[in-house]
Amino acid sequence: MPSEVVLGGRKVAVQRPRVRADGREVPLPTFQALAHTDPLNRRVVDQMLVGVATRQYARSLEPVPTGVVSRGTSKSSVSRRFVAKTTAQLRARQAAPLDGLDLVALILDGVHIGEHCLAVALGIAADGQTHALGLWEGATKNAAESLLSRTRHVKRNVKRWRGGQMMLRWVAAGVLEAVKGFRRLTGHADMPRLVAALRARGCRRCSAAPRDRPRR
Length: 216
Hints:
Blueprint (H helix, E strand, L loop, with lengths): L1 E6 L2 E6 L4 E2 L2 E2 L3 H7 L2 H12 L7 H4 L9 E2 L3 H21 L7 E11 L2 E10 L4 E8 L5 H12 L9 H16 L11 H22 L4
C-alpha cells in the first residue's frame, strides 16, 4: 500500500507491504522506524544551523533517483519543522531537572539580538563540566545595558584621556547618572521567597562546613 519513509532529509513515497496474522495487520518495526519524522526534524535543524537557508534546503540534500516522488523540502515545510523541533528542544531544556548536578559556580550572561536581551544561565559542576541551565527572554533593555549606554553617552565628548583615574571618574559619573533611572525589577514581589530559599540552602551548607574545613 502507498506510504512514506524519511530518507536523506525528505519524505519519500514507497509501497509498504501489508503483513497479516490472525486476521489482524502486523506492524513492521523497520518501516515504523523509517517513517518516524524526528530524524527529518533533526536534519532540518542541523542544516539551518550550518547556514542553509530555508529556500536552499532542497538543493543542499543528496539527490534521489529519477522517478522517486518526495516532499517536505519546501520553504514553508522546512520553516515549520525548524520551529517545531527548536520549540521542543527549548521546552525539554527548561523542564530538565537540575537537582542531580553538583554545581559550584553559576554564570549569567545576556545575548542581545536587536532590541531584545536573552538571559543565559550556565553552571559549572564540581567535576569541571559546564552545563546549560536555562535560557529566558529578558526585558528589551536591561539595567546593565542601560548603565553602559548612559556611561558611553556621558563620556562621548572626551577626546583625550589622561590616565586611569580620569577614566574611573568619568565612568563613575556615568554610573551614578544611570542609577537615577533604575527601577525595581519585574517580579520583585517574589524576592523574599528567593532570599528565604537561598538562606535556607546556605544554612544547611554552613552547618556541614566545619566538618569539612581542614584544621590549622
